[in-house]
Every structure is written in structure tokens, then in C-alpha cells.
Design goal:
Blueprint: H1 7-10, H2 16-29, E1 35-36, H3 48-59, H4 72-86, E2 95-98, H5 101-112, E3 118-123, H6 127-135, E4 139-144, H7 155-161, E5 166-172, H8 184-194, E6 201-205, E7 230-235, E8 248-251, H9 254-267, H10 273-284, H11 291-309, E9 324-325, E10 335-337, E11 340-342, H12 345-356, E12 358-359, E13 361-362, E14 372-375, H13 380-394
Helix pairs in contact: 3-10, 4-10, 5-6, 5-9, 7-8, 11-13
Amino acid sequence: MDHLLSERINNLTTSQTLAMAALARELKAQGKDIISLSLGEPDFNTPDFIKEAAKKAIDENYSTYSPVDGYVELKNAICKKFKRDNNLDYKPSNIVVSTGAKQALYNIAQCMINEGDEVILPAPYWVSYYEIIKLSGGVPVEVPTTVENDFKITPEQLAKAITPKTKMIWYSSPCNPSGSVFNREELTKLSEVILKHDNIFVVSDEIYEHINFSGTFCSIASIPGMFDRTITVNGVAKAFAMTGWRIGYMGAPEYIAKACTKMQGQVTSGANSIAQRATIAAVEADPKVLNYMVEAFHKRRDLVIGLVKEIPNWKINIPEGAFYVFPDVSYYFGKTLKSTLIKDATDLSMYLLAEANVATVTGEAFGNPDCLRLSYATSEELLIEAFKRIKEALV
């Protein structure tokens, strides 16, 4: 019956991270001992001080529609956070609060991209970028990177990818899926290329900002000349273990923020009132309150790097942020493992699910078909067991 549906939805690809997570849950429900390394979700609970703020909001009857672009108290708190953490001078009129950072990205695409506009995506990139851009009439332009260069695009690659149709560049740092973090020097060199062209905008996805082991973080909007060219997207899902609260936000030039508010007003209106009040407590807090989570992720990263290095012929970079590893597994393509021909990363991911009971995500979903993404947002015990199973399945 697909012919009765719109071409828009028929041409839209299902999120492979969500699809693999759903498949893992289904197999678990059937009694299989599945270890899921597929979903990017912290395995910590939301900090108590944030939960207390939500309870207070309920008691204070924040139960009516919220302003489309967010409570002014939250927008003021976000402005202070941007100044404190990123040296960015946004005003409340530059801020839009949305139902998750994903909605902020969709709003941006709908408000900025015209049919045929090109959007540069350094690959690997987060799975939804490609489909959101395509859904908005844009043309995703993938720029490949490799594990050898830490999955970072170079200024030369960027300059070569720009055409008269280029409208935007979207990237994340720390990167989902590679964990790579652009430093200020690297972003400055990329900015020099961008600033040679009029009206090219950057979407800087900084949702993993605080899960960062490099000791440094740079928002590209803080580089001279880039503030008016950048839309900074962030949220509380990852760092504050608030994935289910569904609050994201953007800082953007005022005319873009107004356009996104207009779009949101016709689609979902304001984000959840209770979650917004809780988010005020989150963004006002000193980021040091997150140290226990960041330290745990850092320890797991080091553990996982050691475990990956024990697997023959997997190549890996050293991720400086987020909670993923993204090994190049192309050595196994064309080989037969226990009577199963492995043609590509998708085959290998499905093989590991069937043979090792470990759920991963194919790198094809992230624009790099040579890799697999594995999340280490789970216990050390499960990580050790998962990689033991993977190693045994590949022998």
C-alpha cells in the first residue's frame, strides 16, 4: 500500500540507529541475551537536582502551553550558559527552545534550505542530518574522511566541496559517531575557507559538548567573523542524561531564530513546560556537576580502545569526546565467517547480532561504509563481555 503514501515519506530512510535498537529490543523480548551497543543514550539517571526542579514546576502548576520559543527564564539561562561555556553573546531573541535538538535541526533546514541548495556534510555525520536535509529539498554533499586523519575534514577538502549552490555546512563536535573533536586552530582554518564566500552558513551541533576528554572545546561561532554565519545547536539530552525530557535549543541570528519560531508555531508549538523548567536548573549548573559521568565515560573509552585493539584488523582513532568508537572494519569485507559472506559493514553488523548477540550500527548510516559504530554508554562488565563475543565471532 506504499503507493498510497506520499513520495516524501516513501523516499525517507528509516533511522538505522533506531531500527537496530528496536531489533535488539525485539530479540531480547524473545529471550535472547543481546548486548546493545547501538543506541546513543547515557546509562545514568537524570541528576536529582534537575528532577527536584521538575517536581517544583509541577507543584507551581506549570501545566499550560509554554511560549513557542521557550520560557524567557530558560532563554536567559541559555544565554548565560553560552557566555560562560562558549564565549558567545546571544540575547534571548537569538534563542529558540525545541522538543529536542533534532527538532531544532529540522526547523533550521525548513527555514534555510531551498530546493536544490547544497549542504556539505563532513562524513561521518549523524544519521539524521542527511535525511532532514533531503526532506527539506536540499542536496547533501558528503565529504569523506578516514580513520587515519581522525575523521576530520581539511580546509582543502572543504574548499573543493563548495560550489555556487552551497548554502550550509553541518557538523558535530564532539562528533557522533567518531568522537572526534575539532580544536580552535582547526575550526579557524575551516572558517577562513567559509568566510571567502558570501551567505554560507554553518550548523554547529554541540550536543556532546560536555562529554569531552580533550580538555578543550571550541564553538565555531566564537571565531571572528563566524558569529553571524553560525547556528549553534545544543541540548540537555546527552550531558545531563535527559534523553527522554526532549529539550534542545539553538542560538542563531535573530531573523533565523524568528523564522524557526514561526515554523515551530505551526508544527508543535512550545516544548514541554515541566521539562523546560527542569532545564533551567540544568543549564544554570556548573558543568563540574557532570564530572562523575564524564569520568566514567572517559574510563570506558580507554577500556574499549584496549578491547578494540585486541580484535584483529580493526583500525580505530582515539575519540576525544561523546561515547562512541567508530572502527574501520573493511578488512572483513569479502570474507566468509562461519558460512556467512560479509559484503559490507551492514552485513558485518547483522552477523555480529546473529552470531555474537551484540547490536552495533553500520557505518553506512553515518556516511562511512567502512566502519561500525559502537556505543560504550553501558557498564564495563557488559562492554568486556560484548567485545569478547565480537572477537570470538570474528575468529
